[in-house]
Amino acid sequence: KKKKRVWGGGGGGGAADDNMTEKTAEAAASVVRRCGRHPLAVRAAGQWCRLKKAAVGMDTAAEEVGEEVEKCWERAAASAATWGWSANSQQQHRGVGGARERGRGSHHHYAGAGAGAGEGGGAENIIVYEILGRVLSPLMGGKETSVIKLCFAALARVFTSWVPCIPLDLAMALWEGVLLAEGEGGDGGGDNERDSVNGADIGDGSVSTASALQEAESFVRMSAKQRRGQIRLIAEAMSSLGAVQLSAKRSDSWDGDGGGGGADADAATEKFLEMHHGIVQEYGEFLCTKQGGLAEGLIRDCERRWNGAFVTSFLSLKGGRGWDDLGMSADCQDYALNMIASHMIRAEMYAEARDLLTDDEFAKGRLALLGCEAGTRRHVRDSEELCRRMRASASAAADANGMGGASGSAAAGGGIESRKTLAQSYAKFSAIIGAEVQRNQGANDAESSLTACHALDRIGLSFVRNKCWREAIGLYEATVKFLKSAGHDDSELVAVMLFSVGTAYFELDEYESSFKAYGNCVKVREKTLGENNATFLRTLHRMGDALAESWKLEPALQCYDKAILAMRLNPSMERKMMGNVLMSKGRVKLKRGELQEAKQCGEESLRGKRAELGSSHEALCREYAFLSDVCVESGDLEEAKRHLDEAIRLMKRSRAVAATAAAETAEGGDILLFKGSRHRLNGEYDDCLMYYSKALEYVKSAQGCRKGEVADMSHLVAVAHMMKGDDVAAIKCFEDSLRSRRTRSRKSDLDVARTLFDMTLCHERLENYDKALKCIDESLSIRKHQLGDCEMTMLTLTEMGTVHTSMKEYEK
What we know:
Blueprint: H1 2-7, H2 14-34, H3 39-56, H4 58-83, H5 87-94, H6 99-102, H7 108-111, H8 126-135, E1 139-140, E2 143-144, H9 147-160, E3 166-167, H10 168-183, H11 191-196, H12 209-220, H13 224-240, E4 244-247, E5 272-275, H14 278-286, H15 296-299, H16 302-318, H17 330-346, H18 350-357, H19 360-370, H20 372-400, H21 407-442, H22 446-465, H23 469-485, H24 492-507, H25 511-528, H26 534-549, H27 553-568, H28 575-591, H29 595-613, H30 621-634, H31 637-655, H32 661-667, H33 669-681, H34 685-701, H35 707-724, H36 727-742, H37 750-765, H38 769-787, H39 791-806
Helix pairs in contact: 2-4, 3-4, 3-8, 4-8, 9-10, 9-14, 10-12, 10-13, 10-16, 16-17, 17-18, 17-20, 18-20, 19-20, 20-21, 20-22, 21-22, 22-23, 22-24, 23-24, 24-25, 24-26, 25-26, 26-27, 26-28, 27-28, 28-29, 29-30, 30-31, 31-33, 33-34, 34-35, 35-36, 36-37, 37-38, 38-39
């Protein structure tokens, strides 16, 4: 009504104006109906009408847009037939026969449409995609252009899927880089490929990829000033067409974790660019799929190519300037220090990303901009992602080269290289933080020093997660030393670091050092948390494990008993945690030959975990496997089989392990170990050897595996050979196991004695009596030292007598 009064504003032309307004309203209503009343479709069509109005008037514009929308529905139906989307749902959304015009409750159907049509969901959004595809392909000289659509797809893939709002200058740098890369050929395909896509039929009505390449080639031939003007026109066109919004607000944080800052208030006048709606964002990502309309010549490997184009363009703008002053707006500098490394990683520019993350000036710029805590968080995230990608790349390269069994070692080599990269990335960063700590100490700024120590703890945790044990130990021990000198001896931060040091030493098989670190942690937590605290009891448990691995069995049992007693007195304590302590105690009892007590520990752990987790939880597998081992030692093979069958059943159920050996190896070593043991109990030693050998291969290829795990699996492979009667192969595997055991900072443990005892049996059958006697003598010495006079010592003496009998030394 308001428009009617304005347009019919007096004079003799009022009737004609009224007639025009009614006609316009009718045409507009027709467009709304043809859009199926989808809010975003209506909005895009409205923007389209507004642009056409200047050239042909509103009446004609509305009619033409309505006809174009009808064609969009036809293309949507064709797309549905081609890609298997729901055409029926599209017809319903059109509102044929006025059904949707009468119904108002249907609007909510679109509000939650989140899945892109290219993923098989959100088919109701196809009409939005089709309209946007037409809107973003305006006619120039009577021909459709696709350069805007290409830039829009690059924007969605490179930026807005990661951050909601970006500086316009960086978006323009991206577009310039993409158009230059595509126009010069880049690595997206040679001339033959360009010719092959010439004239391709694009499902959404856009022009072929060849058109986009031609426009990019024209862009390359422009001067730098002309290119900047052209890019600015693209930004304005996207805004006018309703695909993006230009605003003058700045984003809160680039890293999503509350970091950012350091910019002047004047920077708020800088323009930012963001998608209008999530579905519009999805359309940009949809363009990067086969269904999206930009053929393979442009979208193939676009994640890597377009991120690489942005990095190249940005570094060209940066020139030789330092990271502390890039010569850009504060917001662009904020974004660069936060995200440029991430873009390098996504572009697979791993060498460049490594150089950047180890650059002293870049580290200082990050810390100055984001502060100690947020800067460290961002640096850790980038460094870990780089290492993850490097490992995946090494593994994929090994598979692609058909290395077969060598792929595991190749992947392990990639893991070593990635951990080296991680250490280099953190070295200078932690050194800068350490220097800051020293300055703050001199200034008596305790709060800043603690913040810096928390940042160092974050780096240490990253070392632990990536199994860089030595680096973690060095960093933590230096930080703990500073904290103690600053009077924070009894802080929880010191306890956390000591616990991590104990874990690192444990994984390095240096159990004496591990026990000392855990012991110091226990002292701190006993003061700060109390003896009934779950965290304190967990630390006590870990100290017991370190003592047990050091073969200080009595002190280990004392730690376990103290923890178990406190847990039993606290009904709110997790049964699972107490079960873990009981299992550790049971393993010590089993090694000492105290089978009845070992069985009691295993059964109590099983009851507690089953009550808390349910009877089908994967965590029960270890309890069942342990009880099977106890039954084997006590001679109850049928009960051992039942327990092992249950362990295998639970693991298969929880992990859905396939029957093929390849799938089992990919899933993990536990299922291989359990199956090998089951075949051993059945006397099927060939199958037993096969599964044990694959489990050993898996353990060796695992990143950061402990020597003890390799030694244990080598021992089992040797037992399988021995059961088959192949004593020569068995002795070789026993010797491999023995070498691993003797390098674990312990030379007189019961595992060594067990291996020596089994080697004695092999040598005796081969009539190598001197070697047999040497092995059994050392085994007896270890067992008497560790256990004194007990049943296990008696069995060892009996076997020694058997060897002497074979040597006809009857007196001995």
